[in-house]
Design brief:
Elements lengths: L3 H19 L9 H30 L1 H15 L10 H7 L2 E3 L4 H5 L14 H17 L7 H12 L5 H5 L5 E3 L7 H9 L6 E3 L2 E4 L2 E5 L9 E3 L6 E6 L22 E7 L6 E14 L2 E9 L13 H12 L6 E9 H4 L9 E8 L6 H14 L1 H9 L6 E4 L4 H10 L17 H8 L5
Parallel strand pairs: 1-9, 2-3, 12-13
Antiparallel strand pairs: 4-5, 6-10, 7-8, 8-9, 9-10, 11-12
Length: about 450
């Protein structure tokens, strides 16, 4: 059971591999031994992928039995040999739901910020790191010297970061990513800059507990994933509309209803805990008997200075509309903090402090800043009412310079137990993490 998600990912990547094979030069001639090795490896991969696809079909057609088997596997691997749970009902009745004891941000909240350079992950650092890489390629470190390839790299770098991937690999067609939720801005920024002109494909949805969702239909809109019934053991916790409170009990995969939103609950083989991940998904379809979901938002990423509860999804949507009204601006990243954390509401009503990284705009006018507050009022009647009565002040928008979010990410990933993939919080709860952005404001 440990290997089948990995093998299934290979299945999902077979179309990409096939395209790459078709594009190989017709004049290329492999030796007889190399050709034989290639055919054997390709045949083994196709056989393994076909077998795993058959197993997936069977497990999704018999979901209850598959989840029972997944739970037994988790119980056998857990470090509690005295546990005598034999079925799902007993398991849920005897073990309470738990939350992660510390989030990534909480763990790094007391850590000193690591030293960072003034360079961003943009054009400047690309020319400093790219030149070093070109020198290494030319010198043959590692491997044989490749002076021609080094010259190609330098030429590509001189034209800037936009479309760099296609200049380096002209036959590249798709960029494979791993969706962790809350990464839409990063994907959009990558697609607009280095990987301009390329399609993106995410074969799986992952969290710190492992692979949770599988993308079986790459031709469908980005971000749709099947929740498989195998390990890790997944439960669904209904989310009450408009609140972060949960229902009394969890549901199994077959009990999910289309159009409803659920928080993911995970149990893996390493520990016997029913951990609430904080990831909220919406059921958008069904594959055999299993739900197909789309990531919506993360619990705990909510702005609330007067009980208005502006969630991550609503805020990001409002910010996207506001940035769309800023001529020439493209949103690269953003972070938010409640004014009380930065002690910035002295003499004024509590409000949001919003830090944005942009491309195509070097200064923010007051008119541009005000557009975010207008968009928030349009998105949230509660926020609009509080703004009308003066209980909440207007959101303050700040443009940060190069290196701001790079420094923040470095601080977040510095903690020893940082999860993979790393989760980028949009709402910061610790002052000196927020100050990491505040100190780099340029407009």
């Amino acid at each position: 059971m440990l290997l089948w998600p990995l093998l299934l990912l290979l299945l999902l990547l077979l179309p990409t591999l096939a395209l790459l094979m078709q594009q190989r030069s017709q004049d290329a001639r492999l030796s007889w031994l190399a050709g034989l090795q290639h055919r054997v490896a390709w045949g083994a991969l196709v056989w393994a992928a076909t077998w795993q696809r058959w197993r997936l079909e069977q497990s999704t057609l018999h979901v209850h039995e598959s989840q029972q088997q997944a739970l037994r596997w988790c119980l056998q691997g857990a470090q509690r040999p005295h546990c005598s749970f034999t079925d799902i009902s007993t398991f849920r009745n005897h073990l309470p739901l738990t939350k992660a004891s510390q989030t990534q941000e909480e763990e790094s909240g007391e850590q000193p910020l690591p030293p960072t350079s003034n360079q961003d992950l943009g054009e400047a650092s690309l020319q400093a790191d790219g030149e070093e890489l070109a020198g290494a390629i030319a010198a043959g470190n590692p491997g044989a010297p490749l002076p021609e390839r080094a010259a190609e790299l330098r030429e590509a770098l001189e034209q800037g970061p936009r479309g760099l991937a296609l200049r380096l690999w002209p036959k590249l067609q798709v960029v494979v990513t791993l969706d962790a939720g809350g990464q839409a801005e990063a994907v959009a920024a990558l697609g607009a800059l280095w990987c301009q002109g390329l399609a993106f494909f995410s074969p799986a949805y992952a969290a710190s507990g492992g692979v949770l969702g599988l993308n079986l239909q790459p031709e469908q809109p980005y971000g749709l994933y099947l929740l498989p019934p195998g390990a890790p053991f997944i439960e669904l916790l209904p989310v009450k509309e408009g609140t972060q409170e949960e229902a009394a009990s969890t549901l199994l995969l077959t009990e999910a209803q289309q159009g409803k939103e659920y928080e993911l609950v995970l149990t893996d083989h390493a520990s016997l805990t029913r951990c609430r991940l904080g990831d909220v998904v919406r059921v958008v379809g069904v594959y055999n008997q299993c739900p197909v979901v789309r990531f919506i938002y993360r619990l705990g990423q909510t702005l609330s200075v007067r009980g208005e509860d502006i969630g991550e999804d609503l805020f990001s949507e409002a910010l996207g509309r506001a940035v769309g009204q800023w001529p020439g601006a493209k949103l690269l990243d953003h972070g938010c903090v409640e004014s009380s954390i930065l002690d910035s509401s002295a003499g004024s009503a509590p409000h949001y402090e919003v830090f944005v990284a942009l491309r195509g705009l070097r200064n923010l006018s007051e008119e541009n800043r005000d557009k975010l507050d207008h968009c928030l009022q349009e998105a949230s009647p509660r926020y609009k009412s509080l703004r009308f009565w003066g209980s909440v002040g207007p959101a303050r928008v700040h443009l940060v310079g190069q290196g701001a979010f790079r420094a923040l990410r470095a601080a977040l990933t510095a903690c020893p137990s940082s999860p993979f993939p790393p989760a980028m919080p949009r709402v910061l709860r610790h002052r000196h993490l927020a100050q990491c952005l505040q100190e780099r404001v340029v407009s």
